[in-house]
Amino acid sequence: MARRLSYSARYTHPADQLYQALSTRQYWDDLMKGFRDLTPQSDVDSFVTDDGGLRVVLKQTLTRDQLPAIAQTVMMKDMVITREESFGPFDAEKATGEYTASIPAGPGSLTGVQELFPTDTGCTIRRTTEVKVFIPFVNGKLEQLMLVNLVDLFRGEAEFTSDWVTENL
User: Fold this and answer.
1) CA triplet 75, 138, 108: central angle to 5 degrees?
2) Which Pfam families does the record match to this protein (predicted)?
3) What pLDDT does 91 receive?
4) Which of 15, 43, 76, 88 is surrounded by the fewest CB atoms within 10 Å?
């Protein structure tokens, strides 16, 4: 059974400025540089921006000893996470996109949709995630663990993004 989570990051910056940051390769490079404190192998694998919007592929490696005990029971090697994010073209009312995270031979999937829209005080990115783990008996625990860690990830990235926009745009 899949588990779902909706998370909203609120910004004081206007939506077009936030979209501009997401459309900048340097933003993603700086984000991965920050991740290297936690996962030394964190890189932008590809980045494309054009009239159709933006698409970025990130690769991060967590060594097996960095994984929680329950995850070590199913992951016998280092965990390589490939994360893809996209947004369609900027729209002043709402820009939409998708994201996925995958692990080769991983025991599940993580997919989501995201929306960037203006608010009275700036803008919001709302992400709705679905996590599925296909291992009997531990699937629910692993799904919940993934969602808890995802909230921490989204919260940290929102803080980084806000600071990055303030300093760079």
Assistant:
1) 55
2) DUF2505
3) 96
4) 76
How would DSSP label each residue in 102-123? E-TT-SEEEEEEEEEEEETTEE
Please name the residue ranges forming H helices in 23-80. Answer: 25-35, 69-72
Helix H or strand E segment including 38: none
Q: What are phi and psi of 164, to 5 degrees?
A: -65, -45
pLDDT tens by residue, 41-84: 999 999 999 999 999 999 998 777 777 777 767 666 777 889 99
Domains (ranges, CATH) in the chain?
3-168 (3.30.530.20)
Tell the residue number behind the tokens 């996109």, with chain if given.
97
Burial of 125 (0-12, 13-18, 19+ CB in 10 A): buried
**Digit-coded pLDDT (tens) for 1-37:** 789 999 999 999 999 999 999 999 999 999 999 999 8
